[in-house]
Amino acid sequence: MAAVSLRLPDDLLKEAEHRAKILHLSRAEYIRRAIAAMNEKVLTQKRREHLMKVSRRIAAGSMKVNAEFDAVEDAPPN
Predict the structure, then answer these.
(1) 40 with 30: CB under 8 angstroms?
(2) Distance between CA atoms of 46 and 44, rounded to whole angstroms?
(3) 49 vs 54: CA distance, rounded Å
(4) Which of 20, 22, 37, 45 is placed for a possible disulfide with 30 were both Cys, Cβ 3.0 to 4.6 Å?
(5) Cα–Cα distance for residue pair 72/57, rounded to 1 Å
(6) Cα separation of 30 and 16, whole Å?
(7) 10-36, pLDDT tens digit by residue?
(8) Angle at Cα 38 formed by Cα 55 and Cα 46, nearest 5°?
(9) Which pTM was predicted?
(10) Backbone angles phi, psi at 20, to 5 degrees
């Protein structure tokens, strides 16, 4: 496991220590879990953005296909 040194504002560190104590965790474990939770949140957000982008692209294609079917349905029979 790698070691990391970082500077935190006093109030943020104090709050982390307080919450870690409530959860019966070490400060380091609390911070590890906070980083893991943030990583998961960012990954989830990026997945959602990607799915929305793909969904919009598919929806646009579907609208084009629907318009083509409408044109065929409204056309007189041969």
Answers:
(1) no
(2) 5
(3) 9
(4) 20
(5) 23
(6) 7
(7) 999 999 999 999 999 999 999 999 999
(8) 15
(9) 0.68
(10) -60, -40
Measured CA to CA, the distance from residue 40 to residue 34 in angstroms comes to 10
- Angstrom distances, CA of residue 54 to CA of 34, 45, 49, 58: 30, 14, 9, 6
CA dist., res. 30 & res. 73, Å (int): 62
Side-chain-side CA neighbours of 26 within 13 Å: the count stands at: 3
The type of residue at 49 is E
In DSSP notation, the chain reads ---------HHHHHHHHHHHHHTT--HHHHHHHHHHHHHHHHHHHHHHHHHHHHHHHHHHHHHHHHHHHHHHHHSPP-
